[in-house]
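To: structure subgroup
Subject: Chain for Friday's discussion

All,

I'm putting the inputs and outputs inline so they're searchable in the archive.
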Amino acid sequence: MEKGTKSRGCVDPVRGAMSLSVWAGEWLERRVVGEATRRNYEGFVHNHLVPRLGCRSLAGLTRRDFEKFIKDIYRGGAGLAASTVNDRMVMVAAIMEAAVVDKRITENPARGIRISRRDALAVDEDEVPTSAEVDLIAAHIAPRFRLTVYLQSGTGQRPSEALAFSTECRRPGYVRIRWQVSAKVHRKDCQTPFVPLKHRLEKECRDVPTTLFVEQEIDAHLQKWKPVPVVFVGQKGKRIRLETFFAPRQPGAGVMPSIASYGYQFKKACLSAGLVDLDGNAKYTPRSLRHFFASIALANGMPIHEVSRWLGHRSVKTTVDIYGHLLPSAWDRCRDVLQRAMRPVSPDATSQPTEEARSSSSARAA
């Protein structure tokens, strides 16, 4: 008997008719976990699980539903890393396993569902927009988010980093990226709207060169919207002030835009621009703009270790795993290098044989 099935027995169809939304809420209430963990669980359930599967009955959910769920979460612009999605799916599996134990369902359709390493890495070339498509997205997105499209595509920033862009980021010929919007910025109990970069401490940053079109887009944005001062408390208790580009401009106008709200605007822009797949869904996500930046840089000979640093990857191996297959073919260069090393040929060797070669040839003929 499969592990975890000992107490299943018969189930009551009526009990299995409970919606996942109600059952997940009851499950969360019974959890004895730390406050931070509880907030993470509740955020994932309320922001992702319930909107997509919450109305479905426990008995009506299948393994395919959860496979599609994590694919949509990971590829759909939510901004969650594969490791984060996999971690949250452990919680989802626990929610469904509790329904098995409570004799509401006979099988746990969420057990073992995760983003595989292969799916998490090696970007599909179809996920990389063309330069014309980048411009289309920028033209159709809400005007105040136009600049984020070019910050991402022109400097490789993550959505959370582009949304945290401030006057201190802009330097002569480059941008200095130090902050990102908190994943909890949409919550009322969010203590700080900005947090350090992924894999980085508060004082750490990264610099990325900027091109003329990025500088022009920044200038165009500033002509329409002046920076908004935001004061927050850093991790060490120090008050910090940033002149932000995307903060609300009127009291009571809402919170800082979150990754989810930006993803929603990005999706609308794709649909409005006609950038859809065969099923009519948005063809690209905000992550696609980082792919554009990386693929253009690598295809034109930028060293991969530099691109890795600009993207803010923890190691160059991550960059190679994601984008290595997009590099120009190295086979011809490899052949040339090895040929020159092992069997160097003089420049006029192909046009006129040497005296030694002619003598050797005559001797063999004789």
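Points worth raising on Friday:
Confidence is low (pLDDT under 50) at residues 1-8, 356-366.
DSSP finds 16 helices and seven strands in the chain.

D.
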